[in-house]
Amino acid sequence: MTKYNIDVTLTQTKKEKPNASELAFGKVFTDHMFIMDYTEGQGWHDPRIIPYQPLTLDPASMIFHYGQSVFEGLKAYVTKKEQVLLFRPDENFKRLNKSNDRLCIPHLDEELALEALKTLIQVDRDWIPNAEGTSLYIRPFIISTEPYLGVSPSDRYQFIIILSPVASYYKEGIAPVRIAVENEFVRSVAGGTGSAKTGGNYAASLKAQQLSGTKGYSQVLWLDGVERKYIEEVGSMNIFFKVDGEVITPSINGSILEGITRKSVIELLKHWGIPVSERKISIAEIKEAYAAGKLEEAFGTGTAAVISPVGELFWQNEGMSINGGKTGEVTKKLYDTLTGIQSGMVEDHFNWCIEVK
Amino acid sequence: MTKYNIDVTLTQTKKEKPNASELAFGKVFTDHMFIMDYTEGQGWHDPRIIPYQPLTLDPASMIFHYGQSVFEGLKAYVTKKEQVLLFRPDENFKRLNKSNDRLCIPHLDEELALEALKTLIQVDRDWIPNAEGTSLYIRPFIISTEPYLGVSPSDRYQFIIILSPVASYYKEGIAPVRIAVENEFVRSVAGGTGSAKTGGNYAASLKAQQLSGTKGYSQVLWLDGVERKYIEEVGSMNIFFKVDGEVITPSINGSILEGITRKSVIELLKHWGIPVSERKISIAEIKEAYAAGKLEEAFGTGTAAVISPVGELFWQNEGMSINGGKTGEVTKKLYDTLTGIQSGMVEDHFNWCIEVK
Ligand SMILES: Cc1ncc(COP(=O)(O)O)c(C=O)c1O
Ligand SMILES: Cc1ncc(COP(=O)(O)O)c(C=O)c1O
Questions:
Q1: With a threshold of 0.95, does the pTM exceed it?
Q2: Which residue of A lies nearest to B68 if distances are taken between CA atoms?
Q3: Closest to B303 measured CA to CA, from B206, B200, B168, B208
Q4: Of the bound ligands, which one is closest to the alpha carbon of residue A201?
Q5: Which of B28, B206, B229, B230 to mutate to test the interface with A (most CBs of A within 10 A)?
Q6: How many other C-beta atoms are found inside a 10 Å radius of the C-beta of residue A46?
Q7: Closest atom of ligand 1 to CA, residue A260
Q8: Does the pLDDT of residue B261 top 70, yes or no?
Q9: pLDDT tens column, B66-91
Q10: CA A317 – CA A75 distance, rounded (Å)
Q11: Cα A194 to ligand 1 centre (Å)
Q12: Nearest-CB residue to A200 (from B54, B137, B203)
């Protein structure tokens, strides 16, 4: 029992842990999970850690029909000194509550959520891999569980945290990815749910991703849904460009996710004195910069891949090769610094990491 | 066993059926459900009817995270002659496959789905209520069940059908509803998922509906996400207006659902020789018609409510009272005819109903 009365039931049958060399992304889960219920009138109750196990839900549960759900994604790392670090977890729980607002899901106590996560990680401490590039991926999520087929907010929810030891998200690792600009499909539009981390945004993205995959692109770059001109973000990453010495990224506009890696990158660049700005960026502007030889680097930012260099950007039947298809200098420095801070190898001036004790 | 080898396991413990007077919408479910699995490589397999029971799913199942899901809604009626009728079920399964396309879910055999539904209804025949306005609401749905946290189409799915005896969807019954035009939130945009029946569209709609509910409106009228000028549809209904003798409804544009009731209404109106057209309709045009005294009727169309008269439309701080807040003549005739055909009281010239034998 902890301050928040988190009940802990340990498993009787521990699973075998995967070899570091066999780690994939998000396919293997640890021995335990955290779960907490919400019931209207009673609020959030019964926080508990239990053996990792299936959920048992009425087939009429709203999550199966009306998609009322939110989630988060963050990582824990174990350092050379055997410390366990979480990267800015308070930001994730803050964003989870923002997503809750948009999806009409009751707020969580962010402190309790963090405490729950820490307790769970302590219980499954042995599962955190320590080879380079590996980490423990953390997936907090909330689902609506009222068995009711009317379209209205659920009166019951479950908040769950599961953990998965992972290698890099992209098979390519830090190797540059090829990304295609999406012209037909739209991920989100202002007034929609794009700035929330909710399932429907990802379901909406599958088709475009599948089509671009058949053409050899690993992700799509979304344009805005209104004018189909302005750059939004990539599948599960925000996007940055370095143009003529300045790093630019689309501003927060209501339809893109406010990435925590994005925020950290902006703070790092400012700290380093590298010009950085958030503004509307049209795809035409990027093409012009490319034609003028001024498109120096491009990279995506997100928890899963941390920093993902873009080696080629495809638009209007033409591939723009960026930095000769190689990882740019600023991109590399950001990757090294961020993963360094996250894994305790680089000093954490910003106090971004929280130790799990 | 049937032609499609649908295995049937009957329940040992039948539930008590609700009184006709106590029926709500979508809260009570019958004794059995249909379920069928999809596994990559193997296709859809093991169609079976089993006692209504909870689903047991890994917490990493994609449905809980990325919202890859589709659903349908239709109704069965029992006639005075004890026939059981389904209203245009082939259209629902056709639309389910269209939704599947958009959501990257493998197609279903529509004939098998219909056979499954008929078999299930036969098994739970006793559950179809027969009081006026009541019916058996049918909810076919598909969920993605692969336990994997990567954003990509699932390699496993379940197709499920559950049944719920229902009264009218709206507490008001055929009484006119008050609807507010939504100016801030957007349901969908061309290139998005609006024309598919997938959970995310409904999750996205909750916030606007909740806010309008606090102001006394039961539903919102969505405008297009690009110009915020053109009328789209209501929460779970398409919308029609009668202006100066002509019935008009927004055309299918990629962001609204192609309703089966909508289609039937258009066919009925044509049959009756009442002018009807599908076209872009701006909210300003409706307001002008109202000001000129030409906005004669308005109604929503959808399986749940069938025909729902709109008594008041609220836009820009002003309520437009339609037909003095009473059900219009064409609206009433459509309601009577459609519910009449569905329940076997009015002759089915169009062969819309299929009997379950
Ligand atoms: C749509 C989308 N954009 C951007 C990001 C990046 O956000 P973060 O840096 O917080 O992981 C994510 C999440 O990982 C995402 O799902
Ligand atoms: C968004 C939406 N629009 C319209 C409709 C009406 O479609 P149908 O007449 O096929 O029930 C529905 C479904 O019921 C819906 O969910």
A1: yes
A2: A203
A3: B168
A4: 1
A5: B206
A6: 13
A7: 10
A8: yes
A9: 999 999 999 999 999 999 999 999 99
A10: 37
A11: 11
A12: B203
Does ligand 1 come within 6 angstroms of the Cβ of A262? yes
Q: What residues contact residue A344 under an 8 Å CB cut-off, 6+ apart? A: A77, A79, A80, A81, A83, A85, A353
Query: What residue segments make up the domains of chain A, in order of their start?
Result: 7-167, 177-343
* Alpha-carbon distances, residue A69 vs B15, B81, B198 (angstroms): 30, 44, 13
Count CB atoms within 10 A of the CB of residue A279.
9
CATH 2.160.20.10 is held by the domain B7-167: no
* pLDDT per position as a tens digit, A287-322: 999 999 999 999 999 999 899 999 999 999 999 999
CATH topology for the A177-343 domain:
D-amino Acid Aminotransferase; Chain A, domain 2 (3.20.10)
Give the mutation candidate from B58, B151, B218 for the A interface (greatest A CB count, under 10 A). Answer: B151
**CB–CB of A150 and B25 under 8 A?**
yes
- Calpha distance B180→A84 (Å, rounded): 52
Which chain B residue is nearest to residue A211, measuring alpha carbons? B104
CA A286 to chain centre: 25
Q: Letter for the amino acid at A27?
A: K
Residue A197 Cα: closest atom of ligand 1: 16
- ipTM above 0.90 for this complex: yes
pLDDT at residue A170, as a whole number: 57
User: Is A69 in contact with A157 (CB distance < 8 Å)?
Assistant: no
Q: State pLDDT tens for residues A85-95.
A: 999 999 999 99
- A104 to chain B nearest CA, in Å? 6
Give residue B348 CA to ligand 2 midpoint distance, Å: 22
pLDDT at A195: 97
